[in-house]
């Protein structure tokens, strides 16, 4: 019996290092603060607001054009055709605005996540949570991530490259 206890004790001690591993290192970030302090996010927010304003203006202008068109003595078929034409222009503008918003949002999200991963790797953190999800504990890396984000290129440079590529693709399609 004593021998079995001794063997069990020796086995337990031999596997002790596996049980003695330290708990994972946890980091936390304030996602809202990162977004608020990231210049590219502020710039993207302004571009999105401007694009939405342009869309609203285009809708208003279309309504005015259609209203003027209705005042003319035109047939119902012509009115319907004009309405469809104007609606397709608005739909195209709305789709363009939506794609721009999605592109900017994806770029901002990618930049923030890349910066979080880089800082987490530098600080050898195993996991990083948003501050709102953690009640107590975790190393706050928000300021380090914010500093890393400020090193990134402004959004205007990256989106202008994307729009140049888009324009090139459109030109190629038109020539084919």
Give a short summary of the structure.
The chain is mainly alpha-helical and 176 residues long.
CA-CA gap between termini: 88 Å
CATH topology: Protein Binding, DinI Protein, Chain A
| Helix percent band | over 70%
Helix/strand order: HHEHHHEEHH
Sheet with most strands: 3 strands, parallel
Mean of pLDDT: 81
Number of helices: 7
Q: Any low-confidence stretches, pLDDT <50, length ≥5?
A: 158-176
- Globular, elongated, flat, extended or rod-shaped: what is the shape? elongated
Structural class: mainly alpha
CATH architecture: 2-Layer Sandwich
What does this protein look like?
- The chain has 176 residues and is mainly α.
- Helix content is 76%, strand content 6%.
- It has helices at 2-14, 16-19, 31-37, 39-71, 76-122, 142-150, 155-175, and strands at 26-29, 127-130, 139-140.
- Strands 2-1-3 form a 3-stranded parallel beta sheet.
- The longest helix is centred in the middle third of the chain and has 47 residues, at 76-122.
- The radius of gyration is 29 Å and the shape is elongated.
